[in-house]
Amino acid sequence: MSIKSLAKNMLTKRENKKYERLLAKRRMTYEQWCEGQTFFSPETSGEESPFVLVCSEGGTPDKGADALLGAYFKGHPEVQVLYGDEDVWETPPGGPRHSPWFKPDWSPDLFDSLFYFGGLTAVRRRLYEQAAALCGEPVDERTLVKTCVELAGGYERGCRSIAHIPQVLFHWESREAMLECQKEPDTAGKEDALHGADTAGITDEKPFVSAVICSKDHPQLLGRCLKALERAGTGTKLEVIVVDNGSSPENRRYLEQMLSEHTYLYQPMEFDFSSMCNLGAERARGKFLLFLNDDVELCGEDCLGQMALSAGKPYVGAVGIKLYYPDSVRIQHAGIVNLPMGPVHKLQFLEDTQDYYFGWNKRTVNVLAVTAACLMVEREKFCLAGGFSPRLKVAFNDVELGFKLWELGYFNVCRNDLYAYHHESLSRGDDETKEKLNRLLKERALLYEMHPALLGEDPFYSVHLSRQGLDTRIRPAFETAGNKLQEERGTAKRARLGGFREDSCLLFRVESCEQGILQGYGVVLGDDNSCYERYLLFEDQKGALFFQKTKGQYRPDLVENMPDQNRVGLCGFWLKVSEENLPRGIYRVGMAAKNTVTKTKLLWWSLRTIEIGEGGENR
């Protein structure tokens, strides 16, 4: 081996060791996280408890659970039933703790799909006695709790009588015991699956569904969509309304013939999803509205009937289903989660060959919103919510509808036991241009201007789950709790890019850019990433260039999603910039990466810009 190669190997090993040391600091285990928690645990008063604890065998309540539950009941007189989070703690104290389950707030449809209250439920004493009298003897704990939930009005619109404390209140002796509790008896829930739904038109008659499809110049795609729709509509009375915003004369003639037995609304206009859907809804006669992209292929003969079964429940708002990318079982949509960076599709791109986070991808879950690529809602509820907002022409109109329904007291649902194939973005193109990205960001800002109370808030996604970046997996937030926001003092240095080459092998993404805080990653494909120093670049409109060196942030999603790449775990960045660092102005954002061993110099620019100064906006 030559001296040069020997020196290179030594330098590379040095960088690898530095990488492993920093990685160890950034990672955090569940037990380390638990040690740092200071959950509120009030003192007990000595009075008779106003509630009854219903506990499962195979575990024990946390030592502070009784006092915490009592304080919550005292401070929230409207609450009748309480539950918390749970984990596995083998032979406490001192035994290993693992497998935390951080749960959503009250989710009636998830509750029907899975007994997610788990090992501990607290019920006000009077309600417990009423339920026990109704159930008689003997009765299992699950039936008793479900009776309490129903008596408490858990399946009513705007229910506030069932609450969740986001703290671990129960410890299972083993993961096997935890999973066993989640299993439903064969007969569980069969007799009360509708929970007060208007069964007229669902069980005895065919539900009347009006499918509203927006389509332009996609006759073949639309034809495939309609065939799948007819198959999925077995057991329903189906009406089809196609809204065309300006197909070519040739395609229009073809569509008029193809849709001779359906309603065809031809109205040339720029693509405006909200207006087109609202136009179709105005012409609809069905009790249920199904908004469907022309690039969606429904699967299953009773898909529409099952969606109507959920949508017909008086407390349910919008209903969506799981969407796959074509010719695969890769998940595109399994419900929308509302994070600080905006609405995201959790589980997107993951293979649907296993359960993710306690079966989210296999069960019926409650969510803040579902995609309007395939969305069903009762017409009366749609009208009550005011339909799709005309202020959001392309993006986030479905999310905004979900927000409105939630604010009206309805629970939105994603039926992940049903699925369809979605040729995503064929309806409108993609968002990978500067113009489309700017439009997307403006509509996102408008969404939260219309619903400021929901900025970064999601009752169906625990505060203890990962809320940063575009990691589509559902993972505990403690895994990245070792990351620290990088805040630099003083003015950023001027940059010179001599010797740097633009190369797309530097995979650079700005995932979030809010209030001067940039988050994302930069991975050098095909090389040892531990050997690279990374710098965020800021170029103003006059060409002045500044840089800030980044400190590696742990990204477990990159490790999992890029198994063929080398040491990518610290390729994340999380950096705040302000007027202290940069002069006022608008800057485009890029990244430079320098290999400290081989001296390779790379750079790449994103489509994102950031404005520094009073009233500055991030784009």
UniProtKB/TrEMBL annotation:
Its EC number is 2.4.-.-. The keyword Nucleus does not apply. It is an enzyme of class 2 (transferase). GO terms for molecular function: glycosyltransferase activity. SUPFAM superfamilies: Nucleotide-diphospho-sugar transferases. Keywords: Glycosyltransferase, Transferase. It comes from the Bacteria. Residues 210-337 form the Glycosyltransferase 2-like domain. Gene3D superfamilies: Spore Coat Polysaccharide Biosynthesis Protein SpsA, Chain A. This is Glycosyltransferase.
